[in-house]
Design brief:
- The protein is α+β, with helices and mostly antiparallel strands.
- 25% of the residues lie in helices and 17% in strands.
- It has a two-stranded antiparallel ribbon.
- A hairpin with a 2-residue loop joins β1 and β2.
- The longest helix has 9 residues.
- The mean pLDDT is 83.
């Protein structure tokens, strides 16, 4: 089973069910937030678009979601909300 580089599942253990390999459920990451910033959501923003502007990689949207545990889904985020953005250096520590 392949997991793309930058995936939030890159460090998740695998287990086998029959002939199928599955990922273990994953807990949200607790980032060191010393160098985190805030971003105010504007109309038309998407979580992957914010990740692209902040990190240069839309696939790192999961880091923003993990840092903002009050949201269960990106669909809950509305214009005017302030998102905590972990420092890129903290995110890449997890994905190597």
């Amino acid at each position: 089973m392949g997991v793309f580089e930058g995936s939030r599942y890159i460090l998740s253990p695998l287990y086998q069910r029959g002939s199928t390999m599955l990922l273990e459920p994953r807990e949200k990451t607790n980032f060191n937030l010393d160098n985190a910033t805030y971003y105010t959501v504007i109309e038309g923003d998407t979580i992957d678009g914010i990740a692209y502007r902040q990190y240069g990689n839309a696939q790192l949207y999961w880091a923003i979601m993990d840092a903002n545990k009050q949201y269960m889904s990106e669909l809950e985020i509305k214009p005017g909300d302030q998102l905590l953005i972990p420092a890129y250096s903290e995110v890449v520590k997890l994905i190597g």
